[in-house]
């Protein structure tokens, strides 16, 4: 494992934060600790925090260039995560964004403030469901007020097809947003329920839990000592009565976004800190181009071996907890830099770990004779 402590430079992943242009101007090279504002905003059950990045100014110009390319690669996949969370999320977000940008009515009313809280919750959670509880948000404004918002916004910014009107848009959106029984739970894990049919996540279409489990069970070979994670980077759909996978790759599903990811990763290769990092990024690009999960494994093996690079990135379909069956990886991207001072402090503690074990108040039979401490990337 990588023996480093890192400070996240961009917490995207997606979890999906985009560029905040309001806070990107006049960023000083060094920040007054006494005046630094950690909490920027609070709404609903959320508080938005920001952190300083120790060591960023110490990076070379080339390292900062690398950070920028990896940052752009991360942002390029942001809409993938929205779509994975729920098939109508992008549709809803585009509508809300249009209202925020162009609504001509009174923005000081309590209803508009409630609308803004709803929009911010969706931006934060990358969709209409709570990021932890998985339940659909309940708007604290009425469908009638929502109608007023859309009718007083720039219809050119709204996601309306050429042959449609605002009424068509409202007929689609009002049930999605206001009906608590429609796609109420993003991820349902209730025993006895069909976890696919009762979950709103967009990993499966037209199929059932039993069909999917049989689909993947038939792929697994008991003789394979190094199996790939079947289904990690695909959506399963039923077409003509048969299950098939739509793989997330260039030329496959999400191709336009993945093409942008690869574009920035290829620039990052040129700015890489060393040959191993360059090889690792090339392997990630190969994976995005082919969708081959053996290549994904090869990439991760290379990534773990790189313990010397100051700049690091996690980019791909990784965590599977948004899939009720645990097959599908959600898009995730984090760019980080190694905090050298923090790393040295933790290394000093870890070198004395055996002393702490030997001198703990535990009974001797529970003490480890040899204690191995692995420092994980934070």
Describe the fold and architecture.
Helix 9 (275-290) runs antiparallel to helix 10 (293-305). The protein contains 12 helices and 8 strands. The strands form 3 sheets. The chain has a 3-stranded antiparallel beta sheet. A 3-stranded mixed beta sheet has the order 4-5-6, with helices on one face. It has 378 residues and is an alpha+beta fold. 39% of the residues lie in helices and 12% in strands. A hairpin with a 2-residue loop joins strand 5 and strand 6 (242-247). Among the domains are: 6-80 and 255-342, Fructose-1,6-Bisphosphatase, Chain A, domain 1 (2-Layer Sandwich); 87-178, no CATH class. The protein has helices at residues 61-76, 78-85, 89-102, 110-125, 143-151, 166-178, 209-217, 255-270, 275-290, 293-305, 340-351, 353-358; strands at 6-11, 39-43, 46-49, 204-205, 234-239, 242-247, 311-317, 331-338. The longest helix has 16 residues, at 61-76.
